[in-house]
Amino acid sequence: MKRLSMVEDQLQKSGIEDKRVLEAMREVPRHLFVPEDMRKHAYEPTPLPVGDKQTISQPYIVGLMSEALAIKPEDTILEIGTGSGYQAAIISLLAKTVHTIERHQSLYTKAKKILKGYKNVILHHSDGSLGLPSHAPFDGIIVTAAATHFPRALGEQLKESGRICIPIGGASWQELFLFRKFGRELKEYRLGSVLFVPLIGDYQRF
Ligand code: SAM
Predict the structure, then answer these.
(1) pLDDT at 141
(2) What's the pTM value of the predicted model, to 2 decimals?
(3) pLDDT (0 to 100) of residue 184
(4) Set 57, 66, 84, 92: catalytic member
């Protein structure tokens, strides 16, 4: 089956080892999260368009970010950038609750439909660049759009020992970061270069 080969060839062979992440990616039907004319490409090692000039990330990046967050079954996770809803579906199998925010109305509406069976996913239609203070603090935050700089509000909405995975950079070059909170400090780890659509929102004013 294509999904099993995707996990073996694209994730395990590239060093993703977290058993729960691998199992979640074997389970979630990725082809249902992409437009019908893209379904034949759903399991290929590439991002795909999902409408509104936005993309679903390639499988390896979904696996890498999910593993980096070290999600525990009791965790509450915030995702910024719902897009197709695929990453939120994966996290829903790893965490207790997932809050996911999308700024595009049409993507939010589509994702709400497809994520209907994922009972622990709560969708929000707003600018997520300032986080979700009404539901903070979170055990983990995943940002699936590239920020020009670290959005300060997100650090404040993280529990002690929480994690944030976020791409930072410009239109042509970005780096994926993991930040771990120790007390009030954030320690940074670099996970490699990536290319995401931009995070657009009010965080740019701060
Ligand atoms: N996680 C998605 C998936 O599994 O399909 C992929 C996300 S796509 C690469 C980035 C998404 O971030 C886009 O849908 C875009 O509209 C959204 N986005 C950008 N800035 C945002 C913001 N400030 N708040 C919420 N969503 C935002």
Answers:
(1) 98
(2) 0.98
(3) 85
(4) 57
